[in-house]
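Structure tokens
________________
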Amino acid sequence: MDKGSRIISGTWGEVWLDDDYVSEAYGLQLKVNYNKEDVNICRQMAVDSKVTSVKMTGSISMHKVSSRMARKIGEEIKNGKDIRFQIISKLADPDSYGTERIAVKNVSMDDLTLADWEVAKKGTITAPFTFTDYEFLDAIEER
């Protein structure tokens, strides 16, 4: 890193749900969690481990602006349909070495917040989900 301004700011992030830009999003987290089994090795006191599978999770944090997300997801699940999405995360800080885009696929929402509000507090919603695949569409390479 040649200077501190190369650190990417989330201010320049974008979230796309299928082909829709989620303008109310202010945060996104995507994680790959490792499921491991212990491995004991002869003549070694420390227990090692072996990754046996992964669980991919994430969440979108959004300002409460409309009922769009609740309606998009809620009507389908109410009718017994487990709809799936693709989410694209984009970070394009103008001071960075480039743009990073990651597509996560087979996204399944974990819950649906119908209402969550409090007097004198701006409305926000966090939507957790799981996914089963990801792909780097663009990666940032240090120069």
Q: What stands out?
A: Residues 25 and 62 are 4 Å apart (CA to CA). The chain has a mean pLDDT of 95. Helices lie at 68-78. The chain has one domain: 4-138.
